[in-house]
Write a structure and sequence with these properties.
Layout (H helix, E strand, L loop, with lengths): L1 H5 L7 H26 L6 H9 L4 H17 L6 H33 L7 E2 L2 E2 L1 H14 L7 H22 L7 H19 L15 H12 L1 H8 L8 H29 L7 H29 L2 H12 L1 H15 L9 H29 L4 H4 L22
Antiparallel strand pairs: 1-2
């Protein structure tokens, strides 16, 4: 362990590609949400929409895994000091919490304008300012100003706990070998106690960081022991051994079977062909998304090594702006969905759903780039995003893409 702590760790540029793949998964889910709920439920192509909506349902969990990975990779081998903790909280306040508040205010005001009846604010002919502030405070404290902001809210919960985790696992390093098991016990203990042990179960379970401890602690484990596992993560000719090839195949089969099983369960449920216990859903989802986080890392290394430089540059930049795209894209989808096709032609409807994905992706990306390039103090809106797009080796500290 002392040897681990004395080694300065290298930059991992492939992580930006993992972020890019994760944000594409988020956009896939959100752009097909209407199709799988009502829009295409009677279509012969519903299975394809359901597949895109469920098999790619790995975005937020992968971002959670990556956040923990980056933090433990960067901080675990540093001396634990008051300066380190202060710097950590300062960065999160500036680049995470302030953008979260900015977008919570934006979506709260937008919903108040578009759907005033959805807020219990009407007194006589107008609004009560006091009640409006209470409603805003409630949404800020629970990540519910808009549906996607729960992810930032649970990330903030983890950031609050991170220095404590860091101190504890540095003090008791032998426990770091059991991080994934600890995460499983905490997360599933929460699931089962919430379902069977509480008179009034927590309804917004997804807004609690306890629901994602397997991802946090898997990220923590690999962040600490990345040098030990990187030859298994990086699928390359020089890393091939019989044992690793068997491990890669078995792991890929677990990932694929759990992902397809997840898709099948939702397909049967949405078409009311069958029903499943919620705990089984949780289990299949957990296995699917947990294995996907590792698979995406493996894919990212392959893309970085094998793809054309232009593709690598595009995906790297998308990863760098992913936090901004995540925050802003629901607004564009809201606008886009206000103008559904008026024709019954199926091709037009399919094109419209694909168009929603592209509009959310490209439109959000353009807005983020413009804001970062031309608006001073753009971190207030989108956090820390570098202006330049060129891909080149940089210091590890430049994983200041801490936002996701």
């Amino acid at each position: 362990m002392s040897q681990l702590l004395s080694v300065k760790r290298d930059n991992i540029p492939q992580l930006s590609i993992v972020r890019a793949l994760a944000i594409l998964g988020v956009l896939s889910i959100h752009s097909t949400s209407v199709a799988v709920s009502t829009g295409m439920i009677d279509s012969n192509w519903f299975f394809l929409y359901n597949f895109a909506n469920i098999f790619l349902k790995f975005g937020t969990t992968t971002f959670i895994f990556l956040s923990s990975f980056v933090l433990f990779y960067n901080y675990y081998n540093r001396p634990f000091t008051a300066k380190l903790v202060t710097s950590f909280y300062q960065k999160r306040l500036i680049y995470i919490i302030i953008p979260y508040i900015s977008f919570s205010l934006f979506y709260f005001g937008l919903k108040l304008y578009l759907y005033p009846g959805s807020y219990p604010l009407i007194l006589g002919d107008g609004f009560s300012f006091g009640e409006m502030m209470l409603a805003l405070g409630d949404r800020l404290m629970h990540g519910t100003a808009h549906t996607h902001l729960y992810f930032v809210y649970i990330s903030i919960q983890f950031y609050l706990l991170f220095p404590l985790f860091l101190w504890f696992f540095k003090k008791y390093p032998k426990l770091t070998h059991w991080l994934l098991l600890i995460g499983i016990i905490v997360q599933w203990g929460f699931f089962l106690v919430n379902k069977y042990g509480l008179e009034t179960p927590v309804t917004a379970r997804g807004s609690w960081s306890l629901s994602y401890f397997t991802y946090y602690f898997l990220g923590a484990y690999l962040g600490i022991y990345y040098d030990k596992w990187k030859q298994w993560i990086i699928i390359a000719k020089e890393n091939v051994t019989k044992k690793r090839v068997i491990g890669w195949i078995v792991f890929a089969l677990i990932w694929l079977s759990s992902g397809l099983g997840h898709v099948y369960m939702w397909y049967e449920t949405r078409l009311k062909l069958d029903s499943y216990n919620s705990t089984l859903f949780d289990l299949v989802w957990n296995i699917h998304t947990l294995t996907t986080a590792i698979i995406l890392m493996q894919i990212a290394f392959i893309i970085y090594r094998k793809s054309a430089k232009s593709i690598v540059n595009v995906l790297t930049r998308l990863g760098e702006v992913s936090f901004g795209v995540y925050l802003f894209h629901p607004f564009l989808l809201l606008i886009y969905r206000a103008y559904p096709p008026q024709t019954g032609t199926s091709i037009i409807h399919h094109a419209w759903y694909v168009g929603g994905f592209l509009f959310a992706l490209i439109g959000s990306w353009i807005v983020v780039e413009i804001v970062v390039r031309f608006i001073p103090q753009s971190w207030v809106i989108f956090g820390s995003i570098k202006k330049k797009k060129a891909l080149k080796p940089e210091s590890r500290e430049n994983t200041r893409n801490i936002q996701m």
